[in-house]
Amino acid sequence: MTTPAQHDRxxxxxxxxxxxxxxxxxxxxxxxxxxAMDELVAAAHRLxxxxxxxxxxxxxxxxxELESRHAATQRAVVWFAAAPVLVPLVAGALVLFExxxxxxxxxxxxxxxxxxxxxxxxxxxxxxxxxxxxxxxWTGSVTAVLLVGAxxxxxxxxxxxxxxxxxxxxxxxxxxxxxxxx
Length: 182
Known about the structure:
rod-shaped; 182 residues
């Protein structure tokens, strides 16, 4: 099913193709009189207007697609932000009750802040911003899962802790890159 913007673009594209063909047909035998030449000039003006309308329709379609991606990203990042917010919050409570070392706060606080930024900061309507926010959301969620693996004592704790630190740095780097996009 096509959207109204796609329908408008398809109509404009058909009109441009039809006018180009009419112009080619009019030029196949060279015009011999002034009236035929005037008709060709008028057809050329109609073609320019139709091409301008086609460009505007393509622009509206691109804006509609970007708006659709923007809305979907804004809905998705709220769900993706749950893990980077809740896991550091629970781990922070474990630090408060002296179950975990206070050194964990070096990872928990930035991940918690990144989770809030991912979930609740406005997403600008720009393709690169939407891509960076989506990447940051995925990275933050994976980092939260790694943090869960790093907290209990088991043989993979050191590996999960290192990967968590890298994930926090990666999430913050992606959010910084997003903020630098004009």
